[in-house]
């Protein structure tokens, strides 16, 4: 279907030519998909979570299968901001020039680490259209609970990073107390929220009585979590007025459309990139067809248009 | 330097898919571009239809390619649901495959080489041995299996005609009774090697790597990990390095310099 | 496999001959399964949530499919305790006599309603070996939030029902703040906890922009939620010392064994009863075989035996 | 009184499964016990293999049973993934079925009866008409479809030989152009009925129920709901009643006295 629907959206100051983004950690740093299609056609990509200094991540095995999903315990392996920019900066700069927004995800084990990583990005990554703060990182000083586990803790992270950049800040939320934490983040100046991160789960090898992965718990993603994620986006949509990026189990244009109707301005494709590497542009096409079939001239008319 | 990816998504058609042993199958897939692109030691990530609740592809090495016919030969063991469904794909059925994945063996010319394979580690080892033989090397091959009915690769190994072929079975039902590492020790005592290539169960490869290191011979090992993408996008296939930190099995491997791996 | 493993467990005073229970709302009131197998062989059944007075429940449609799961919005349709006892009392009394424990689930829209329902059960249901308090019922005076949504609210319900019966009280928990709420319930005298109830989700028909069900949100169940449920049982196990009943996506003996290893004393089969009506006795057989294969003489040795 | 359930889980084998129209199929399943237990208007809940991510069974009425041959005849439309997979089950393949489910038609003897079916509502209506004819009634049958290629049941209806058969298509490609309710109005004007039985799209049944009520004729309607279990265990198949509250489609129905339903 050739469509005249305007697909451009504004994710808190990140001007995307269409709503399709990619979920951090499921899209490498973009270049891995250039053998499959022209990544420049996407609205945005979000790079793998990156900290000021390199992180090793968790031992193997890091992935196991679940019904209609997977569970991962990568543990935010990353080379640190300097090496990240050295390795991928030119590619990402080129991607921006091709009209695809680059959102760099920022990781940290403490407030200081977030600030330090963001400062490095500010200095070294002119190609970034915006930053995504991953508040699900484990807090080293609190026994591994997520940095943004409570409204207060999330607000504290946000308050610390906000003054460090004028570029848009998206906050990547855990699937927990969404409405309250969203309000806290909006109050501290978040430009947009993306949700959801993986849902903590557990898979035990009943013969050995040990975890199937190297850690007792890991993160569930894929189609299994989609309906839960749509509900959480709707909760956030009712709670705040900053734009949202819907994430979780998107495998089709219909899945993406559900997020838009529930209140998302953009939609990230995650696990599906890994199993169907051409998923993102296909989903973009299907979403565009759906918008046309709804008789609107601008996709923005459909954001939050769920009727209940 | 811009990073770049040469991994593609291709359709394939099953040309044939037959049991060649107990729970061991040989699948020939028609996928012309993939057949012309794959280098020994690389692998592919196959979508097996028939159960949408299993979303992940299955990674497989290949035993040979026929670029003229546009075909790729896989040898695989049925170990779970995915490989069971694969074994039920009839000739003529179709799906998609991601490839070529990974780095492949380093098969430059040189002295005598030793190829050691365990179970369904044989396909990439046979492919390596063939490439080494074509590069003009003498190549001895050790093939191990639990039992005779699960052995694959002997004919292909003998067809190389490039050196000795030793078969071991854990239960003594065929060839030498014992493990590939025992056969390897005997060969190391009799020949001078400058390269060992190996693929098989992790414990076996660790033993092979130790023996090679002890003998001062370079060793390349093809590793397996749970893989999600196969092309460097997810970091789920990490291999711990002796020097610390991790490398990616699907991009930096699956073939590693055995001396660099933290076994 | 013929096994000599002792399978009897004690769920907070409810003495079950084996750990297999059925999840409320997915097993009718038991008799519906007698055409498929002898229900008396199960350790226990949990009846459909029942309130003092009849509830109509929600309009149709009440069910839609999800990847590896379903979503339901039955809304606790029930005939009220009097009619419940009149219709099923004799059957349930017989079931108890056949050695299968009957756990009656209690529903309410307010503290008063729980108390009233429990009083009626106390008076009319001598066959009940124990009661399960469903604290996920919508609180009419709080705009529909779950009655036990916070530790304080959950404790309040528990404190109100505790004095009304000497029989064991199991509390059925929502998939939310499990550790904290479990501690609050234990402190108020709960004998056991069962978890998890369905996870709220949302499914939108993108053509009509309306919910696929009669309510905007509904409850996700089935294999899709299993790994999440196992993790929550483990969290509860670390938080409290009263026994737990693991619920969520159990389709096999292995799934049940994961719950036991994660700390559950009993395991309920839910959605799987509906799609494979002979699931529960099959799962019991598989669980028994697994226990034997683990070389124990008593299944109790495996409770919480997850190694990490 | 003890409640009791006569619903069982049976294996079945596909005896045949062929297209009989555009996206309309006829499946004959071999399941001897089920074939001998099913009464007209009851239904069954079929597990369709091939995609473990779809966990729910599909409910189907039946058009006829042959207790001697041990077979049951289903007529079904391909509307989504589940029915598409069902249409791909080859003869000889097997699965399981839950049944007999529901209450069935009340088919006692009496005066002239009218059977009104829309689309794949035809199977249970044909089964009802056959039972009514066997009970000695005259039975007129109205069969409606969107278009000729999607029509099923005319031959079976004519084979009853018990009354008039009127066919309507929405697009006029066959029989009368228009809706079954229009054909029903014409018949109501010409004949005296004491029973209407109907199955089809909800809007059609609502119209039929209204006409029957206007004419003072008893009306039984077979309803559809999203169903999970089919045997009274889950309460997901509720039907709103005029008198308030809900009944269960799978236990109290699927056949309801149309005057009691809140259409
Ligand atoms: C680079 C690479 C090349 C491979 N080449 C071959 C090959 O040529 N021939 C062949 O038979 N197999 C090969 N494998 C292994 C093959 O991918 C697995 O056997 C297959 O994915 C199992 O799928 P399943 O659904 O049948 O098993 P599952 O049901 O997923 O698991 C069954 C059991 O198989 C084992 N297993 C599962 N996945 C893997 C894995 N990725 N690596 C090792 N063990 C696993 C586990 O013990 C598991 O308990 C290769 C794996 C990798 C990573
Ligand atoms: C008691 C009963 C008897 C039935 N008898 C027959 C029969 O004899 N022949 C026949 O072809 N069909 C019959 N149906 C309908 C049949 O069950 C559905 O068409 C089938 O379940 C659709 O499955 P699917 O996976 O192909 O479609 P899905 O992918 O699940 O859905 C596709 C579309 O089909 C419709 N649909 C799905 N489920 C139902 C349902 N339960 N009721 C109505 N519409 C539905 C919806 O519009 C949906 O959007 C009956 C249903 C019931 C409840
Ligand atoms: C292998 C893998 C790695 C991930 N790494 C990150 C990460 O670095 N940062 C992050 O915020 N989320 C990470 N995620 C979560 C995804 O970005 C996404 O929120 C989640 O997978 C849900 O979306 P999906 O169901 O579409 O995959 C990762 C997910 C997967 C599967
Ligand atoms: C149709 C249906 C009805 C349910 N009704 C109730 C109920 O009345 N009370 C309750 O506590 N839970 C109810 N539940 C939740 C189940 O008891 C169980 O907690 C949940 O489904 C998770 O388990 P499962 O994945 O095995 O189904 C219901 C679930 C389903 C699918
Ligand atoms: S499998 Fe995804 S990075 Fe290797
Ligand atoms: S479908 Fe379960 S009660 Fe009717």
Q: What is the straight-line distance between the termini of chain B? A: 32 Å
Q: What's the CATH topology name of chain A? A: TIM Barrel
Kindly state the percentage of residues in helix of chain A. 25-40%
Largest interface, and how many residues on either side? A-C, 42 and 42 residues
What do we call the CATH topology of the largest domain in chain B?
A: Rossmann fold
- Derived from helix and strand composition plus strand pairing, the structural class of chain B reads alpha/beta
Short description:
Chain A contains 8 helices and 16 strands.
Description:
The complex is a heterotetramer, with 2 copies of chain A (308 residues) and 2 copies of chain B (263 residues). In chain A, 31% of the residues lie in helices and 19% in strands. Chain A has helices spanning 81-97, 111-124, 151-161, 178-187, 226-239, 253-261, 271-275, 279-293; strands at 9-11, 14-16, 20-22, 44-46, 63-66, 69-72, 101-106, 130-134, 169-173, 192-195, 199-201, 204-205, 210-211, 218-221, 244-247, 266-269. In chain A, the strands form 4 sheets. Chain A has an 8-stranded parallel beta sheet. By secondary structure, chain B is of the alpha/beta class. In chain B, the strands form 3 sheets. Chain B has a 7-stranded antiparallel beta sheet with strand order 4-3-7-1-2-6-5. In chain B, strands 11-10-9-8-12-13-16 form a 7-stranded mixed beta sheet, sandwiched between helices. In chain B, strands 14-15 form a two-stranded antiparallel ribbon. Chain B has 2 domains: 8-101, Translation factors (Elongation Factor Tu (Ef-tu), domain 3, Beta Barrel), CATH 2.40.30.10; 113-260, 3-Layer(aba) Sandwich (Rossmann fold). The chains are: A alpha/beta (308), B alpha/beta (263). The interface between B and D is small, with 5 and 5 residues.
């Amino acid at each position: 279907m050739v469509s005249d629907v305007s697909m451009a959206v504004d994710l808190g100051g990140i001007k995307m030519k269409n709503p399709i983004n990619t979920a951090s950690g499921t899209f490498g740093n973009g270049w891995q998909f250039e053998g499959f299609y022209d990544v420049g056609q996407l609205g945005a990509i979000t790079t793998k979570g990156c900290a000021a200094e390199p992180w090793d991540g968790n031992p193997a095995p890091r992935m196991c299968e679940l019904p209609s999903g997977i569970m991962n315990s990568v543990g935010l392996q990353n080379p640190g901001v300097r090496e990240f920019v050295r390795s991928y900066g030119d590619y990402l700069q080129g991607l921006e020039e091709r009209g695809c927004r680059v959102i760099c995800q920022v990781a940290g084990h403490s407030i200081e680490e977030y600030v330090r990583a963001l400062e490095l990005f500010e200095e070294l990554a002119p190609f970034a259209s915006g930053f995504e703060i991953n508040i699900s990182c484990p807090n080293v000083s609190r026994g591994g609970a997520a940095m943004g586990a409570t409204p207060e803790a999330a607000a504290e992270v946000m308050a610390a990073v906000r003054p460090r950049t004028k570029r848009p800040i998206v906050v990547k939320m855990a699937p927990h107390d969404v409405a309250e934490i969203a309000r806290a983040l909006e109050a501290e100046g978040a430009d947009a929220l993306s949700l959801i991160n993986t849902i903590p789960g557990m898979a035990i090898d009943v013969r050995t009585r040990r975890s199937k992965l190297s850690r007792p718990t890991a993160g569930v993603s894929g189609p299994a979590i989609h309906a839960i994620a749509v509900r959480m986006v709707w909760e956030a949509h009712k709670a705040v007025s900053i734009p949202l990026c819907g994430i979780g189990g998107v495998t089709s244009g219909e899945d993406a459309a559900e997020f838009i109707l529930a209140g998302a301005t953009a939609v990230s494709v995650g696990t599906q990139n890994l199993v169907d590497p051409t998923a993102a542009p296909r989903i973009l096409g299907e979403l565009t067809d759906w918008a046309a079939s709804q008789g609107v001239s601008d996709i923005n008319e459909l954001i939050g248009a769920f009727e209940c | 330097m811009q990073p770049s990816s040469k991994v593609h998504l291709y359709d394939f058609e099953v040309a044939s898919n037959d049991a060649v042993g107990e729970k061991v199958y040989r699948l020939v897939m028609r996928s012309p571009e993939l057949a012309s692109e794959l280098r020994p030691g690389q692998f592919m990530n196959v979508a097996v239809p028939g159960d949408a609740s299993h979303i992940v592809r299955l990674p497989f090495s290949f035993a040979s390619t026929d670029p003229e016919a546009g075909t790729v030969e896989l040898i695989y063991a049925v170990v779970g649901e995915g490989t069971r469904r694969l074994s039920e794909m009839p000739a003529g059925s179709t799906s998609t495959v991601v490839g070529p994945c990974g780095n492949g063996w380093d098969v430059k010319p040189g002295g005598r080489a030793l190829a050691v394979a365990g179970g369904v580690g044989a396909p990439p080892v046979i492919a390596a041995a063939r490439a080494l033989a074509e590069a003009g090397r003498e190549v001895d091959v050790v093939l191990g299996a639990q039992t005779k009915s699960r052995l694959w690769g002997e004919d292909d190994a003998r067809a190389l005609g490039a050196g000795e072929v030793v078969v071991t079975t854990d239960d003594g039902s065929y060839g030498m009774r014992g493990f590939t590492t025992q056969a390897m020790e005997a060969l190391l005592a009799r020949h001078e090697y400058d390269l060992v290539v190996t693929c098989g169960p992790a414990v076996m490869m660790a033993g092979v790597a130790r023996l090679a290191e002890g003998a001062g011979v370079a060793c390349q090992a093809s590793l397996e990990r749970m893989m999600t993408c196969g092309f460097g996008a997810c970091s789920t296939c990490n291999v711990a390095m002796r020097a610390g930190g991790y490398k990616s099995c699907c991009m930096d491997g699956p073939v590693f310099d055995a001396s660099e791996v933290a076994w």
